[in-house]
Amino acid sequence: MSEAPKSAGMETNSSVAVRLRESGFVIVSSRELAEIVGLKHIDHEATDAFLSAWNDLPIDEFLADGGRYRFRRHASLRLHAGGETRWQDEAYRPHWQPKAYNKLHGGVFRTFAEVKSETTANIVYRNIVSSFGEVFRAASTNQREPWFVETHQFRIDARRGEGRPTPEGAHRDGVDFVLLLMLGRRDIEGAVTTIYDNSGALLAEFMLHEPFTAMLLDDQRVVHATTPFRATGANPERDTLVVTYRTGGFLQP
């Protein structure tokens, strides 16, 4: 595997960081993401293995609405300034959010299945997490502190009824920045994402549908939600990777 050229990716990083500072959110095209992550220089086998990991997600047992439509895995790590070379895996820790950020599921520890080691070792996964850590560092005043990062593999399934990407409604995640990466949507109708400022004014409304497009959020400045969706065919699924970046430690009581 050849090393990705630095110039194109660095120029794209800078452009995306500027847009994020200006508006509080950015939609990243698949072309931009490929440059940031170096996807064009990663062999197809690694990309296929990364995507196939979404076929082995256990059901989310913590849905307060009683639904059986969400499947997920979760992991934590620290990302020090310098990106991939300063990656520090964390022993598994439950996911926790205060009710101020998640009215439906906040205030409890949720122990999800861990992201598998073959996924965390995959170059696509590692490049995504570390590359966007550098984008967010460029968009913020944080130049030296580590990012406390949580990654969430999600599959939302509408076979048994409505799929609900954000059952908690419009929300913040309680972090500094959020990456939502679209990996695939099949046989569904709906799943429209809305972004609001902190006063509740609508800033944007759009649908992520192309694989390897992404939404970047300044979680201090905007609130987001995605509408439910329904099946239109035999395999009604929506696969995403959500990665959150926070300074000062992981969220905890």
Could you please describe the fold and organization of this structure?
The protein starts with 5 loop residues before the first helix and ends in a 7-residue tail after the last strand. It is built from 5 helices and 12 strands. Strand 7 (193-197) and strand 8 (202-206) form a beta hairpin. It is of the alpha+beta class and 253 residues long. The strands form 3 sheets. The protein has a 7-stranded antiparallel sheet. Helix 1 (6-23) packs across helix 2 and helix 1 (6-23) crosses helix 5 (123-139). It has helices at residues 6-23, 30-37, 44-52, 117-120, 123-139; strands at residues 25-28, 70-79, 87-89, 147-157, 177-186, 188-190, 193-197, 202-206, 213-218, 222-226, 229-231, 237-246. The radius of gyration is 17 Å and the shape is globular. It has a single domain (6-246), classed as q2cbj1_9rhob like domain (Jelly Rolls), CATH 2.60.120.
